[in-house]
Each structure stands twice: as C-alpha cells, then as structure tokens.
Amino acid sequence: MLKESGELDALLPDLLLAMGLEPINRPAIGVRQFGVDIPAVGIDPTDNRRKLFLITVKQGDINRDMWDSGKQAVRQSLTEILDSYLRMFVQPEHEALPKKIVLATGGDIKQDVYPDWVSYVDRHSGADTKYGEISFEFWGGDQLAALIEKHFLDEYLFPESAQKQMRKTIALIEQNEDEPRHFYALTEEMLFERNLPSDKTASAKRKRQHALRLLNLSLHIVFHWCKEANNLRPALLCAERVVLRAWDWMRQKDVLDCKTTLEEYMRLFWGYRSVLQAYAIKMHPYCHVRDGLFGHGLDDIEYPLRTFELIGIYGIEVMALLMHFEHAQEEEQRAQAAAAARGVAQTLIALTVNNPAALNPCFDGHAIDIAIGLLALVSSEYRKEALDWIEALSSRVVFAYQIGRHFPISTDSYEDLVSMSIGEGLPKQKLMELSTLLPMLAEWHAVLRIDSYDEFRQSVLNIFPHTDLQIWYPDTTTDNYLYQTNAGRESGSTLSTIQLPETLEQMRDWIVRVREQRDVTETLSCIVHGLPILGLIASRHFRTPVLPVYWQGLLEAAQNDDAEQGEETQL
Questions:
Q1: Each residue's pLDDT tens digit, 224-257
Q2: Do 457 and 502 touch, CB atoms closer than 8 A?
Q3: Which three-class secondary structure state does DSSP give residue 9?
Q4: How many CA atoms lie within 13 A of 275 on its CB side?
C-alpha cells in the first residue's frame, strides 16, 4: 500500500529510527542521489555489528523491466552505489564501517528476475580492498511488514485499544452518514490520554516523536483504505482532525518551540496535505462541467450542501499551496507552488460558475465556506472573479428570501431545510432571525471596493428589516477551543444588531475601528507561529465562524499599499 514517492520513502526513516538506526538524511525529490535514497548508520540486528546502510527505494514488484530498463532500474541504482556513492559520498567517519546495501520495495522480486538478483549479489558481496566489507539485503513487502510490526506496532506505541479503533475506522470507511469517530477517539487516546512528557530531554522528544509518527502512520493507513473504497471524505475528516488536535496538544504541552517536535508535526501536516490534494484531484473533473456536482444521487437539498463543502475544501487547498509558496526557499519551488495555487483557484472558479448551487447557500453557516473560498480567490490574485461571485451571491440571497425558498436559514437545521423545501417550514422571518452572511458580504464589498455596496445595503434594509446582522469575534480564550470544538460557542463575543454604514468608505473606516478594538491575533498560536491556515481548517472542520481578521487583514494590507503608493507619488 506504500508508493515510492512520499509514502514508502517517508515511512522508512521513521522505521529505521525505531530499529535503532540513524538516517543521515531523508529522501530528496529532484536531486540526483547516485542510487542511495536513504543512508543510515547503526547496529545491524542480524549480527549486532555497526554498519553503514545504503538503502535504495523502489515501487511495487521488481519485474524484468524494473530490473534493467531506464535510469531508475534496480541494476542501475545498485551499480551507481558501487561506482559512485561509495567512492565520493561516504563520510570519513563511516569509511571503515561494513557497508550493507538494501533494496527496499513494497512488493517482491518476480521469479524471472530473482536469479539476476542472486547473481548480482554474489558477484559484488564480500571484502573490498578500498571500501571494506559489502553485503546486500532485500526488504520486500513481507519483510517490511514484519519490521513494522516488530518495531512500530508494539504494545507501547500502538496499544490494543488503539488497534481496535483503527479496525472500526476501516470497517466503516465506505459510510458518509457519520464522522469517523473511532479515528477521533484514537487521536485523543494517543495524544491526551498517555501523559506524554513535555520537557526538553532527549527521551521526552523521542516519545513525542513516536506519538506523532504513529498518528501519521495511522492516517496513511486510513487514507489507503479510503482510496481502495473510492471514498476519500473520511480520510479528509481524519486528516483535518489529527492536525488540529496535534497542534492543540503541542500548544497545551508548551512545546511549539521544540524544533524536533515541530518538524515531526510538519510531517504529519504534509500527510494531511496529501489527503487534501488527492480529494481535490478526484473532484476536479466534476467542477469543469455544467452541474457536475449534481450527480451521484444528490437531490435539490444535497446539491448545494455538497457544493459549499467542496468550495471550502478547494479554498483550503489554495491557501495551503500559498503557504508552501511563502515558506519555500528555492525559487523553483516557489514558482511551482504559485502555479499550483492558481490552478486550483481556477478549478474553484469553475466550480462556482458551473454549479448554480454555489449561489444558493442553504445555511447561514455556509458563510464559513464562502469566506474561505473568497480568501483563496483574492489571495491567488483572482480578484475580479471574487468580486463577480460576491455580487451574484448578494443578489441571489436577496431574491431567494423574497420568494421564500432556498435562502440561508439561521438555524442550520437539516429538518428545517427539508420542511422549507416542501412548503411546511416556519415563517421565513423566523428562519432568518439572524444572519452572519449578510454583514460578511457587506464587509467583502468594502474590502474589494465593490461599487454595488449602496444597492446591496439598501436591499438589506428593505428586505431584511427583522434580521439581526451579527459578526463573531474571537477573544483571548479562543485559542483554548479553536482546535478542538466550535470555538464560536465557547469563546469570543458577537457584535449584533449591526447597522451597515451608509457609504463604502464609511464601511471601510468602521471595519478598521472595530478591528482595532477587538484585535487578539497575538493570542492565537497558529498565527503567532506562522501557520494561520490552521485557523481556516478549524473553521471548516468544527464550523467555527471564520475569524474576521482573515478578510479584514486584506483591507488593511490594501490601505498600506495605497499609502506606500501615495508616498512614492509625492517623492
């Protein structure tokens, strides 16, 4: 179940550490490695001798083509190790050690290739006058499974209760009616019920590493079975939950500044990114055809629900790629991340254009997905497309409320939604007693300087006179709840009975004043430590209202740009 790139070669360094072997470096993509994907040093369990392990990683079964065809062929990699790596890249302190060359793959050696492998090993094994003793070993799927079971899945690292939760998660992988609660329970047990240490000793760091590695391994197992079942939604929910709860655990343990623990967390985060990317790729074709999301047995109610869920997912994917762009050090990586972000943003645009349901939010809570989608479009420089979507949304919500159907109800109750669709619901004034969507759209008008603000404001005054306009703001306790539940119910404060300012400029000034009064960003660990995307993931997963700082910050950035341009003009 493990591929060469990003999976098997990501697991092997952790497996080596569990075996007592120390990887010298981790696999690098796009860098010539002269046959060696992972070098490691340690005691060989077969004879208890300290050796230099030179591991070459391949994908799947070793057949005739893979053995001797192309630059990635097994024979080519083994020969490069003997001819180049041993001659030029062995560190001086390792030159005197016996060398063990390991061929690792998740498959097996096919019968017609096995004699070639045996012959190659016989010819090149033994004492070498320059490089010392050289031996070979094959780690196929069966051997790797045995090593993982022996060194990873022992009772200490993977207790029986956690194994049961994993089995239950996999058994229910094809169901979408409920959340993967067994995996959630596994996450809680592995992080919060084991009394993991928080001190700075090497032993404490290793225990924290083990916990995060186990969660990463568990996530990849679930991801694999979700791909087998062609149902990635449970894997995405598991991935979101584990990165949020792991961050909360690190925050509570006060180890966010521990480099070792943070590096291990980032590997877990990239596991989440793999799941997110796979989900986005799977749904990509359905976004580029008219009513592409209406299939799969969805009805008039499920269609918009699934549409806005996907808007939030694609929005997060864009923001994750932009985060990679900001953190990448090499120009080529930055260019690739920027191009990928724009590509996903284009799919998000196609989704909103090709699926009319993207203009008909059913729940006021869909303001969360809309905010994430708009942030993604503006941040990836699709400002006009974001503006067009805002204007279309604004007019459609007003029209839907006027006709009494398909407007965003404030109860976020599926039963109320069904009752309204069959004409037996509560009066529309009761179903939309409050709204966070309307004032948020008004603020987006101000952020993007949309000329139709006056018209939208007048419509809100005339059509929604009995609707209480509200925006939730976090407070200094929000960080305690943001990564574990709906923080909007447990913390913060709601600015209610909002009266929309008369003009666009007055709205912009009002946003700045309120922001200054309620700014608590210095208390939000995800922003302080450079991972603001966690706040957006938390909003999508736990349905916490999106923190206004995310879109209001765009207004402040625009004002700063305007001020700088003004200074340049004066000069």
A1: 889 889 999 999 999 999 999 999 999 999 999 9
A2: yes
A3: helix
A4: 29
